[in-house]
Amino acid sequence: TRLEILRALRNRRVMFFTILYPTVLFLLSASATKADKLVEGTNVTYRTYYLIAYASFGALGAALTTNAQKIALERKEGWIRQLRLTALPGNGYVISKIASATLVTVPAIVVVFAVGGAMGVHLSASKWLVAFLVLWIGSLAFTGLGIAVGYGVPQDSVQLVNILIYVGGSFLGGQFFPLNGALENVGKAMPTYWVRQLSTDVISGAKLESSGVLILLAWLVGSGVLAARMYRRGVEAN
To answer: What are the residues facing 38 on neighbouring strands?
Structure first.
């Protein structure tokens, strides 16, 4: 697990797209709006909205990409077959992948939060903490998806599938701009939407929607089941 975490943190491409890129997008979006301008129909400012949106964008990207491409490469190079000859149990391998992806999401959230605080987003300590926990726990759905993609998708197609899931999910989740109308109705079926929305509700003091919590939990469980199934299939194939 320690080696997997170090390996993930040394991946400059992953660090760029999950920490630097979301931070730059937040700075651009937050700078383009007045600090006290509210998102229509809410009591949340645009600056606060983008703080949560781009923190979730980075966290979900880290959870997804940390494992998908690494697993695909390990399959291609025969590393998984090699590990089967060692004493390492299969669950130890999977747990190390989950742990590395889960920990890499932390800086993706914290850096955007720190920049947002420096730009004038003022929240109580409890709201910062709870918003962080919602984003962090919610990103687990994409950790499972990353493992499932790594094992279930042909190696040459993993990067394309990653982009489609990441960008498409973020678009429908409202990570780039507030949603309304038909687009919002579609987005409410996505984990990206509820990770962002529940975190925003925590900050605004709005009542958490039980349907949103259930949908996010369903994605968490479903992605975990899918990851386990793809893992078993991948091990059998190797």
So the answer is: 45
